Amino acid sequence: MTFFPPPPPWVEEILTVGVTGTNGKSSTVGWIAAALDQIDDATVSVTTLGHRIGPQTYPFPPTYAGFLEAMGRGRDQGAHHAAIELTSASLAAGFLRGWRCRVGVFTNLSQDHLDIHGSAEHYLASKAQLFLQLPPGGSAVLNCDDPASELLEEIIGPDVERWRYGRGNDSTADLVARDLHVDWNGTVARLEHNERLTALPQSLRLSAIGDIYVENALAALLGALAAGVPADRAAAAIEAAPPPAGRFQVLSRDPPVVVDYAHTPDALRRTLATARHLCPGCLTVVTGAGGNREQSKRAPLGRAAATADRIILTSDNARSEDPAAIAAELATPLSDHPAVTTVLDRRSAIAQALADTGADDLVVVAGKGHETEQIDGHGSQPLSDAAVVRELLGLA
Fold first, then answer.
1. Closest CA to 106 of 49, 163, 178
2. Which residue segments constitute the domains of the chain, with CATH numbers given?
3. pTM of the model
4. Which helix (H) or strand (E) holds 189?
5. Rounded CA separation 251/278 (Å)
6. Which SS3 state, helix, strand or coil, does residue 382 take?
7. Which of the 8 DSSP states describes residue 364?
8. DSSP string, 61-110
């Protein structure tokens, strides 16, 4: 069991916004940090993408010691705010015994990490720790469109302020996005809010592409407001922020190619729905599944890929498992699909996907996003989907 020592005596000097959920954590933290930058020159940001203090990134290790080093360095530079990504594994291990959050943000819940937690109930219970341990006077930001929010509501303390966001399906939402428009330039939504919120713009324009990012942006906006950022400045900062790395990252428009981190069934389904909206021609997806991880996720991943016109199954961090066996599990629900191939070498799979791709077509390379290594039975080797695409297209 991981041991987390008591928080450092200066923990209360840094108002921390913790974000948990299956998908969208890094994107939401990035936008919260961008908003916090409006009131703090040394905001600390911690995600799976790395550590940032103010405008500077740091190579702190992805450990609790590295986290404390980042927080301590931020404190030395005058930080009073932080936005951090909280995985279910860290919460289950007792991370909140070693650090405290004043604001908790929930993005969504779908199938993932059951190899670690054993059941969907334990997975949710792990994420619920963030909200169970919010202090009196703290704030919880919940996604009204996700049924898990109702369960989280039941365990939040009576002295914790609640903020709710969604797409308009719940009358209790404080902030709602409607009339979404997605194109190659980004995503726009009309905002509606109740009397609790003032000074918000009538619409929100994101550089990120896809409806899921509107949900993440609403979560970030409310998280920033709960942390003390004025509404208009928070919205402007979120609009000005660049799209998250490796999240529907457009590498080329001729031919259209996108790299996306989507590695859960729900994330891949939503990514391909966005891609289909933008693609009048042939939609191709290159995808795989991690080895030594949740085996039950593989068939649902295959079903999610089925919405593409052409599917190329490949290796994705197979670790000690046989990549061919993983691909066969992904292919199980695809027996009726007319265009499924398996190319285990990931670079070759991407090359095949790009072959004969026209201006009306779209290639989505899914599963690794920002990652720069491929892990197999021989260890780790350098491999970046974005770098491979750029090289093959002569963009490097």
1. 163
2. 11-240 (3.40.1190.10), 249-392 (3.90.190.20)
3. 0.94
4. strand 186-193
5. 15
6. strand
7. E
8. -SSHHHHHHHHHHHHHTT--EEEEE--HHHHHTTGGGT---SEEEE----
How far apart CA 270 and CA 366 sit, in angstroms, is: 12
Q: What is the pLDDT of residues 186-216, one digit of tens each?
A: 999 999 999 989 889 999 999 999 999 999 9
Place of tokens 């990012």: 213
SS3 content of the chain, % helix, strand, coil (to 5): 35, 25, 40
Distance CA 396, CA 392 (A): 8
In the DSSP assignment, the letter for residue 221 is H
Give the model's pLDDT for residue 56. 97
Measure the CA–CA gap between 21 and 218, rounded to whole angstroms. Answer: 14
Residue 110's pLDDT band (boundaries 50, 70, 90)? confident
User: What are the tens digits of pLDDT across the range 315-374?
Assistant: 999 999 999 999 999 999 999 999 999 999 999 999 999 998 999 999 999 999 999 999
Q: Is 43 exposed, middle or buried (0-12, 13-18, 19+ CB in 10 A)?
A: buried
d(CA 309, CA 281): 9
CB-based contact 221:234 (threshold 8 Å):
yes
Report the alpha-carbon distance of residue 36 to residue 23 in Å, rounded: 22
* Start-to-end CA span in the chain (Å): 44
Instruction: Band the pLDDT of 230: cuts 50, 70, 90.
Output: very high
Condensed to tens digits (0 to 9), the pLDDT of residues 43-76 reads: 999 999 999 999 999 999 999 999 999 999 999 9
How far, in Å, are 34, 39, 100, 244 from residue 42 at the CA level? 11, 9, 19, 20
